Structure formats: C-alpha cells, structure tokens
Amino acid sequence: MSKKDKKDQKPGQPTFVNRVALRNYAVLDRFEAGIALAGQEVKSIRSGGVNLRDSYARIKDGEVMVFDLHIAPYKFTTQDQLPPRRPRRLLLNKSEIRKIRKAIDEKGMTIIPLKVYFKKHLVKIEIGICKGKREFEKRDTIAKKESEREKERALRERE
Questions:
Q1: In terms of pLDDT, which residue wins out, 103 or 107?
Q2: pTM of the model
Q3: Spatial distance between the Cα atoms of 90 and 117, rounded to a whole number of angstroms
C-alpha cells in the first residue's frame, strides 16, 4: 500500500492478507477492484469475518468473479442468510479485464485474491496475476528472507 492508500484507510479498519498465496505464488501484476456485496456481508467483513484461503478468481461471461471467498454470515441480520462461499462479482473496467484476460492466457497463470481492505467506506480487493512457485523456488525465497534478517540483525547489533 502506498502512503496515499494508507491515508484513505481509517485506523481500526481491518485488512486481510492472503499469506498462503504470497508464499505459494509469484505475483506478477496487481489490480485493485471493488467487490459487489450485500450490506450484511460488509458488516461481517468489518467485524473480521472474511477468509481468503483457497479463494481464486476467473473471467466468466466478460466479468471477473471471485470464488470460494468465505465471508461469515452476519449474526445480527434480520434478512435471510447468504451462502458464505457464493461467487462474487469484481468491479473492474473493460480495459483492466482485457489486460487480465491477456495475462492469464499464458500457461500456468491464475488470478488470486491477495488482500481485502477498506478504502474510505468501500470494500476493495486486491487481485494478483500469479504464477505458481515450485518447491525449490519457495526454498530460495525463504533463504533470501533469512539472509536479509541476518543482515538487519548484524547491523542493529553493530550500532
């Protein structure tokens, strides 16, 4: 998130990150999209009832849809409960959808939801064009992070 995005987000608003996806996929490009939700789902997200694990997105009938995004049912609603894992439409413009379609036509590319957050009063979802990492690539990433930590630790101890 840039400084401007952090300014738009009010303190106390939850941000949910898909850490498993960041570990298992290499993110090549990111897009910010709105998400079509019912009022009770927004309230549930505000109270922390969202899980990004195992969620993915597909282009279906010219629209980007997110599947298996779990939004817990809101306890205090008087309306009928919505299914927690129903497909939800992402709000992107046509040029962004064309870019995404072109990118995922390559072999091994997929659309993964990376983050759900509030921007002012709107729920936003950050999706990424991702390519799956192989086991040795995951080990290399972990080794790089550990070496960076060691370097930072050494610099702190020196001071």
A1: 103
A2: 0.78
A3: 14
pLDDT tens, position by position, 56-78 = 999 999 899 999 999 888 888 77
Domain limits, the chain: 3-133
SS3 for 78-99, per residue? Answer: CCCCCCCCCCEEEECCHHHHHH
For domain 3-133, the CATH architecture is Beta Barrel (2.40)
Q: Report the C-alpha gap between 159 and 142 in whole angstroms.
A: 26
d(CA 79, CA 67): 23
Q: What is the dihedral of CA 66, 68, 69, 73, to 10 degrees?
A: 130
Specify the DSSP class assigned to residue 48.
T
Task: Please give the pLDDT value at position 8.
Answer: 61
- Show the tokens assigned to 145: 């992070």
Strands (E), 48-147: 50-51, 56-60, 63-67, 70-71, 88-91, 109-119, 122-132
Cα 135 to Cα 15, 26, 60, 89, 90, distances in angstroms:
28, 12, 31, 32, 31
